[in-house]
Amino acid sequence: EEEFYAIDNLKLMETSKLAVIIKIYALLNLPEKLEIKNIERILSVIHERINKNGVKQFPNGPLSSEATYYTLFIHYMRDSLKVLENTNYLESIIQKIYTNLMFLKFTEDVNFDLVSEIFYSCESLKLLNCIETKETLVQLSKFLFPDYITSKIARIGTLPKNNIKYRYFKIDKKTGRSKEII
Fold it and tell me: Least packed by Cβ within 10 Å: which of 50, 83, 100, 175?
């Protein structure tokens, strides 16, 4: 077990695989005191792959929609989205969708890597739609409003808490499944 969680071994794994390991820990409700060291190692490897434009699937690889989705999800699940506030993940997600749609348009055969990138980009947008934090609101406002409105939103201290349901669904933090809100 110690070999599996060695930093050198973790660095060889895909970011999405590392995130799924953290998700499994949460689903199984494993005693955190025993596993916290392993979780911290995994998170440190993932954090090394985050840059201002998104997340890499491998240390020296390109940005990946799948890696970005799983990184967003684990930080949503762990209530630690603040870690990602200095990244332009939303811009990266939207750019990936447009770029991959253009590539698909020019190829006759379906490229499953492109389809996968589009799928995870759309899943990331779905997840972002459910995250009601100031950081996410600022990211979304950059695409919806002029800069001066985004600046005003960024200066708000904390978002007011209310019981109004803005979404038709929420993402379950343990399973990652969409739940309908009635």
Answer: 175
Residue 157 is assigned to a structural domain of this protein: no
Beta bridge mates, 171 = 178
What is the dihedral angle through the alpha carbons of 99, 150, 125, 50, rounded to the nearest 10 degrees?
70
Position 122 in a domain: yes
Q: Is residue 118 part of a domain?
A: yes
Beta bridge partners of 54: 51
Question: How many Å apart are CA 125 and CA 174, to the nearest integer?
Answer: 18
Percent of the chain with pLDDT over 90: 18
Contact 106, 118 (CB under 8 A): no
53-69 pLDDT, tens digit per residue, is 889 999 999 889 899 99
pTM for this model (two decimals): 0.70
Identity of residue 121: S
Q: In total, how many domains does the chain have?
A: 1
CA-to-CA separations, 97 to 23, 42, 71, 154, 166, in angstroms, rounded:
26, 28, 18, 26, 25
Q: Give the chain's largest Cα–Cα span.
A: 52
